[in-house]
Design brief:
The chain is mainly α. The chain has one domain. Helix content is 80%, strand content 0%. It has 3 helices and no strands. The longest helix has 52 residues.
């Protein structure tokens, strides 16, 4: 038998969703100063490589934020299933009556 706590599952889903939103709020990293630096130092290879690195980090952050959002959605779906199972089980117990 699997034990679950619907309240904790909902809290987990909300936490994951909030974390994903917080991470998405950090993208793009270093903006607008990053854009200004690249524009001001067009011939500087360091600035170009730094911009490329930050773009790659932006992609990583977006990926992880998306994974957190998907985890939250999957947990929400699990909550719906668990609640439906509880209702079904309660109905079956009630229908069976006392022994």
């Amino acid at each position: 038998m699997v034990q679950y706590d619907i309240v904790k599952m909902k809290a987990l889903a909300n936490h994951m969703r909030d974390r994903g939103v917080a991470i998405e709020g950090k993208v793009p990293l270093g903006w607008p100063s990053r854009e200004n630096a690249v524009n001001d130092m067009e011939a500087c290879q360091v600035a170009k490589r730094l911009d490329e690195t930050l773009c790659n980090l932006d992609s990583v952050l977006k990926y992880h934020a998306g994974r957190m959002r998907k985890m939250a959605e999957a947990t929400d779906a699990g909550v719906v299933i668990a609640e439906a199972m509880d209702v079904t089980n309660a109905g079956e117990i009630e229908q069976a009556g006392p022994r």
